TrEMBL record:
GO terms for biological process: peptide transport. It comes from Nakamurella endophytica. This is Dipeptide/oligopeptide/nickel ABC transporter ATP-binding protein. Keywords: ATP-binding, Nucleotide-binding, Transport. SMART domains: AAA. One of its GO terms (molecular function) is ATP binding. SUPFAM superfamilies: P-loop containing nucleoside triphosphate hydrolases (SSF52540). It comes from the Bacteria. InterPro entries: AAA+_ATPase, ABC_transporter-like_ATP-bd, ABC_transporter-like_CS, Oligopep_ABC_C, P-loop_NTPase. Residues 9-255 form the ABC transporter domain.
């Protein structure tokens, strides 16, 4: 593994097996490589598998979710082979964590100081050290240390989310997945919390993934953007290029939903139709039924990721190498039959 590669996930598939009904394949053979200190965005419509992928790569999947394929190597260690207890220990030792729109993950009957105490106890910190460390961490998220003696309900939504971020930082994770961290907040508070997240990532140099259904939020914060559709990566590009370069038709559709606050005229489009049912087999490109550029091949063969611009995209039309790669793979499959 090259020195600065922190996460190397390959061919990751995650299924949900409900008590009744068909298995939902929420993540389908996804490759995800993260370099140390990188800040990557993961964008797509609701239900496309973003959270599931975030939980998978941090070893935080819970039943009924199950890793059904692929390998996840974090800092040289295959995490799929670790037990629950080994993962818990790895987390205490600075592994990786998901921060959800975490305002409701605080315990209503514990003060904020007690939250820090509980987490840091496992690190061997005593009461006064935990309190000191808590105050210090609260300062990094721009909260006063008197927040330590408050209960969650005494704080605003934005403050609670800042506390959640400070708690996550207390474990000094090397990778943090921020899963829609500001979605539950009002717009002004959203911007302030996002700017703190950006600042922390820059100053503390942890590796981060920002999950959002909103392309605009991600473009403003991250260096590289992964577009996810129906459990797969549709496109992977430098954030700066997404606004200007050639794109996957789905990225284009998402972009048309995003109002650039600096633009004179704002076009707000929606995307007609719905993503496919993930409990069914998908033939061809999953976006084909909604795609304005659809061709015959798109309905038959799922395009693999192929070079496009400075990144990759899975599109027979826009990334022509997808077509060649798919055709070769198809021929091989035919010959083997
Ligand atoms: N606990 C669960 N049981 C069954 N299906 C689930 C569960 N959680 C998520 N799913 C399904 O997995 C798919 C991906 O979900 P998710 O990863 O939450 O998407 P996103 O975060 O992009 O909105 C969806 O189709 C969703 O219905
Ligand atoms: Mg989600």
């Amino acid at each position: 593994m090259p020195d600065d590669l922190l996460l190397d996930a390959q061919g990751v598939s995650v299924g949900y097996t409900p008590e009744r009904g068909d298995r939902i394949l929420a993540v389908r053979e996804v490759d995800l490589r993260l370099h140390q200190g990188e800040f990557v965005g993961l964008v797509g419509e609701s239900g496309c598998g973003k959270s599931t992928l975030g939980f998978a790569v941090t070893g935080m999947l819970l039943p009924p979710a199950q890793l059904v394929g692929g390998s996840i190597v974090f800092d040289g260690q295959d995490i799929a082979s670790l037990s629950g207890e080994q993962l818990r220990q790895a987390r205490q030792g600075g592994f990786a964590l998901v921060l959800q729109s975490g305002m409701n993950t605080l315990n209503p009957v514990r003060t904020i100081a007690n939250h820090f105490r509980d987490l840091l106890k496992a690190h061997g910190s005593d009461h006064s050290t935990a309190r000191e460390r808590g105050a210090e961490l609260l300062r990094t998220v721009h909260l006063d240390s008197d927040v330590l003696d408050r209960y969650p309900h005494e704080l605003s939504g934005g403050m609670r989310q800042r506390v959640s971020i400070a708690l996550v930082l207390s474990l000094e994770p090397r990778l943090i997945v921020f899963d829609e961290p500001t979605t539950a907040l009002d717009v002004v508070v959203q911007a302030a919390v996002m700017s703190t997240i950006k600042e922390l990532q820059r100053t503390q140099q942890f590796t981060a993934v920002l999950i959002s259904h909103d392309l605009g939020t991600v473009l403003e914060a991250t260096d590289r953007v992964l577009i996810m559709y129906a459990g797969q990566i549709a496109e992977d590009q430098p954030a700066a290029d997404v606004l200007t370069g050639p794109h996957h038709p789905y990225t284009e559709a998402l972009l048309s939903c995003y109002a650039d606050p600096r633009a004179d005229v704002v076009h707000l489009g929606g995307i007609a139709g719905n993503p496919p049912d993930l409990s069914k087999q998908i033939d061809g490109c999953p976006y084909a039924p909604r795609c304005p550029l659809v061709q015959d091949i798109c309905r038959r063969i799922d395009p693999p990721l192929a070079p496009l611009g400075r990144g990759v995209a899975a599109c027979h039309v826009r990334a022509p190498a997808s077509k060649e790669l798919a055709a070769t793979a198809h021929e091989v499959a035919d010959r083997e039959h």
